[in-house]
């Protein structure tokens, strides 16, 4: 009965729609219904880029994260961007930037109907999705995020992930192009970033180096580094844990801290 009641609550308070961006990418839109019965009321929004090593889209960083931020009062758009297991054999990495841009464009085209404040759109990325989110945040685009949340992000392909470039099923000619840490400027959006110290998948140096660059360019940021936790820990609770090693109450705190940070950005 509890499970059925939960499903009823979500079905009653939100709608889910899917929009195709191209042959290998789409976005799922989780739309809250307006609780204030006011046509002029708008919500902030978050675009989520799950991880998966540019090989697949991590399910543990998809629906669970979307529902977590939906419950905090955000319209959520989950980007299922182009990755290798979608039959690609070409370098699609720059195409991923275009896919993020396409989601922002969808928001700006439909923000009234979707009840989104287009000036309060944030970008969240995990692992390789963090690489994509940070890359987009540091690039010149028509639509810019108000802030970026990076969860154990890759910030360069030379900081311990991947172990070698054979990870990709396409050739990378200029590896420095994907060093996002070196793309940080004073125009980089405010950033919330977190990582676990013993992450063996994506070494913490990725986040430490990124924080160093944010500091040098005087970009406002909040960082949290936890003593221990496996890579891809996501919400760090039973919702996303494939084993007990991923249930870490001390790490799960990042969700409430990120929510507080988001609210401060909205008020700025």
Q: Give the spatial strand order of the biggest sheet.
A: 1-2-4-3-5-6-7-8
Give a short account of the largest sheet.
Answer: 8 strands, mixed
| General form | globular
* Number of strand elements: 8
In the CATH scheme, the class would be Alpha Beta
> What integer is the average pLDDT?
93
Number of separate domains = 1
Task: Describe it.
This protein has 268 residues and is an alpha/beta fold. The chain has one domain (2-267): Rossmann fold (3-Layer(aba) Sandwich). It is 31% helix and 22% strand. It has six helices and eight strands. It has helices at residues 2-13, 63-70, 93-114, 128-137, 205-216, 249-267, and strands at residues 14-22, 25-32, 43-49, 75-80, 116-126, 147-151, 191-196, 221-226. Strands 1-2-4-3-5-6-7-8 form an eight-stranded mixed beta sheet, sandwiched between helices. A hairpin with a 2-residue loop joins strand 1 and strand 2. Helix 3 (93-114) crosses helix 4 (128-137). The longest helix is centred in the middle third of the chain and has 22 residues, at 93-114. It is globular.
């Amino acid at each position: 009965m509890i499970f059925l009641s939960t499903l009823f609550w979500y079905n009653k308070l939100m709608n889910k729609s899917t929009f195709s961006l191209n042959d290998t990418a789409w976005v799922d839109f989780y739309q809250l219904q307006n609780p204030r019965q006011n046509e002029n009321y708008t919500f902030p929004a978050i675009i989520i880029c799950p991880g998966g090593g540019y090989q697949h889209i991590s399910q543990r960083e998809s629906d669970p994260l979307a529902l977590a931020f939906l419950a905090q009062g955000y319209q959520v758009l989950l980007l299922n961007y182009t990755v290798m297991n979608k039959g690609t054999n070409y370098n699609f990495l720059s195409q991923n930037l275009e896919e993020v841009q396409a989601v922002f464009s969808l928001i700006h085209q439909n923000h009234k109907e979707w009840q989104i404040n287009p000036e309060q759109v944030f970008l969240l990325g995990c692992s390789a999705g963090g690489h994509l989110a940070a890359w987009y945040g540091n690039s010149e685009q028509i639509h810019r995020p108000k802030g970026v949340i990076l969860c154990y992000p890759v910030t360069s392909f030379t900081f311990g992930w991947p172990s070698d470039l054979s990870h990709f099923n396409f050739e990378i000619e200029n590896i420095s192009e994907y060093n996002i840490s070196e793309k940080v400027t004073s125009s980089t959006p405010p950033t919330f970033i977190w990582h676990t110290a013993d992450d063996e998948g994506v070494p913490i140096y990725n986040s430490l180096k990124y924080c160093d660059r944010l500091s040098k360019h005087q970009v406002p940021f909040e960082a949290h580094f936890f003593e221990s936790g496996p890579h891809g820990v996501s919400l760090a609770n039973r919702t996303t844990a494939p084993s007990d090693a991923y249930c870490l109450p001390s790490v799960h705190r990042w969700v409430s801290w990120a929510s507080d940070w988001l609210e401060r950005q909205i008020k700025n």
